[in-house]
């Protein structure tokens, strides 16, 4: 059997559509229901659906009054605050194209990004670095907030394939790309409401990421609002150690975060969480040991999703179909998925490149002003994700790593995720990641970097590795570090890992 799914006809896409209108239509039917709560140990800032919709449509009116026109790009430089969501959806409601960016970017970084975007406006919060481009006007967040009292704009209705928003890839394996998404992208997200999130209108979903991250924008905000549920977002300054208390205090029924955040949460005792139904994990590989820890600590399962900025999530476990141990999950119902080799789909059980059907509504329009880079990702009706995977006979997907993450010690191709999963139980190790380092010209070996309370004797570590890994997969270097390099959302920056090596 080939590594291929055939879901039938693609999801119908309306001829005329607006993403923001789609996201907020369910909430309009329950105007007094909580849409958003920014939660902290000291309390919460609460937004009803009526307040959110008024702010979004008022922002659309105000942005157009600034002289902007549909199709213009708006750079968002805002922190973890409601203004981010209002600016994002308000711009889309008006037919503008918002570009969310991390508030932690430096002036140099955001200037380089903005130079590629040519935005017509920057919406800025206090203390956030701005691009050094004096010709671009800046709208303070306070002025955006005042727009909530303006008359509501009509939804800008147009082709579902027109640009809706732009996000940047993480850049952990190279220069970040500007990914252009269409209004239809929200229809692709509908496949994951049951295929991963198990999300319904009565849920209270807490997401631990920053507003600007695509994982948070989608799973933490747009998905709950599309279903008429409540989004809970920790406020600025909330630490992973405080999240369990917030889960309990604010009756969260679903929790979403990156594995790195979940790992930090589990270092302490968790309170009883009777309302919690399950957790969601994405952003990097979920190792079986961490899933088991979560299950033991919460009494609920942790469902992983595999996705990317270009197509959100498309492989996942779910409450209705949990992933087998060691697998990322199954292709979501309605997704056309293949595992490709040089000649097309490979037999099940054979590694290859994960591909998504080019007709998936959640798939990007392309990389901004980069036609060659866009074209390189497509082949024969498929979008090539760059992920190396293997599809089992039952359809479950085992993740083997990124094309550019694959290691090649002694001529053998090795996935770092396989090694990390095998070493996850080492005593004295809190966090661990592996990569190749060049110990001499042309001589590359596997190095394991770990965090923990003390430096460990490598001899027992080598013995433990030998018990579960072939010789060519075993680390030759073991180095304690203060912290693994991760981005603000907890995703491992494997490219920066090798730079931590210090020859002894």
Task: Please supply descriptive tags for the structure shown above.
single chain; 9-stranded mixed sheet; alpha/beta; 504 residues; globular; 15 helices
In words, what does this structure look like?
The chain has 504 residues and is of the alpha/beta class. The protein folds into two domains: 368 residues, ANL, N-terminal domain (Rossmann fold); 96 residues, GMP Synthetase, Chain A, domain 3. The protein is globular and about 70 Å long.
How many domains in all?
2
Which structural category do the helix and sheet elements fall into?
Answer: alpha/beta
Q: What does the radius of gyration come to?
A: 23 Å
Number of strands: 27
Assign the CATH class of the largest domain: Alpha Beta
What's the architecture of the largest domain, going by CATH? 3-Layer(aba) Sandwich
Helical amount = 25-40%
Query: CATH topology of the largest domain, anyone?
Result: Rossmann fold
Low-confidence stretches: none
């Amino acid at each position: 059997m080939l590594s291929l799914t055939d879901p039938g006809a693609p999801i119908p896409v309306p001829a005329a559509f607006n993403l923001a209108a789609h996201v907020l239509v369910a909430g309009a039917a329950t105007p007094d229901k909580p849409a958003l709560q920014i939660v902290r140990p000291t309390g919460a800032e609460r937004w009803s659906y009526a307040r959110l919709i008024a702010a979004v449509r008022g922002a659309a009116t105000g942005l157009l009054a600034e002289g902007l026109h549909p199709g213009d790009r708006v750079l968002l430089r805002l922190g973890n605050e409601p203004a981010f969501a209002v600016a994002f959806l308000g711009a889309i409601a008006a037919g503008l194209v918002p570009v969310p960016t991390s508030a932690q970017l430096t002036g140099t970084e955001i200037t380089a990004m903005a130079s590629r975007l040519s935005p017509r406006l920057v919406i800025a919060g206090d203390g956030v670095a701005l691009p050094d481009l004096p010709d671009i006007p800046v709208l303070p967040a306070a002025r955006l907030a005042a727009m909530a009292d303006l008359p509501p704009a009509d939804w800008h209705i147009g082709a579902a394939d027109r640009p809706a928003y732009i996000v940047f890839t993480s850049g952990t394996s190279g220069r970040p790309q500007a990914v252009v998404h269409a209004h239809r992208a929200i229809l692709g997200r509908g496949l994951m409401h049951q295929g991963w999130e198990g999300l319904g209108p009565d849920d209270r979903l807490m997401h631990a990421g920053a507003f600007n991250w695509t994982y948070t924008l989608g799973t933490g905000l747009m998905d709950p609002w599309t279903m008429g549920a409540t989004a809970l977002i920790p406020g600025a300054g909330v630490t992973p150690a405080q999240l369990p208390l917030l889960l309990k205090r604010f009756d969260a029924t679903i929790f979403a975060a990156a594995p790195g955040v979940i790992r930090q949460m589990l270092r302490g005792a968790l309170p009883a969480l009777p309302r919690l139904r399950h957790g969601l994990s994405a952003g990097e590989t979920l190792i079986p040991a961490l899933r088991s820890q979560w299950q033991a600590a919460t009494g609920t399962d942790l469902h992983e999703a595999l996705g990317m900025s270009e197509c959100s999530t498309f492989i996942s476990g779910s409450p209705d179909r949990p992933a087998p141990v060691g697998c990322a999950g199954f292709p979501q119902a309605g997704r056309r998925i293949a595992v490709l080799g040089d000649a097309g789909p490979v037999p099940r059980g054979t590694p290859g490149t994960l591909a998504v059907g080019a007709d998936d509504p959640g798939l990007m329009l392309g990389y901004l002003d980069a036609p060659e880079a866009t074209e390189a990702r497509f082949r024969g009706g498929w979008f090539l994700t760059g992920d190396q995977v293997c599809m089992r006979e039952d359809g479950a997907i085992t993740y083997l790593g990124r094309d550019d993450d694959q290691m090649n010690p002694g001529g053998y191709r090795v996935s770092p995720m396989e090694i990390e999963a095998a070493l996850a139980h080492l005593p004295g190790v809190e966090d661990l990641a592996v990569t190749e380092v060049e110990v001499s010209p042309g001589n590359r070996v596997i190095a394991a970097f770990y965090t923990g309370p003390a430096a460990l004797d490598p001899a027992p570590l080598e013995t433990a590795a030998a018990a579960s890994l072939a010789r060519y997969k075993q680390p030759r270097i073991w180095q304690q570090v203060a912290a693994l390099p991760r981005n603000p959302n907890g995703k491992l920056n494997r490219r920066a890992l090798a730079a931590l090596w210090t020859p002894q």
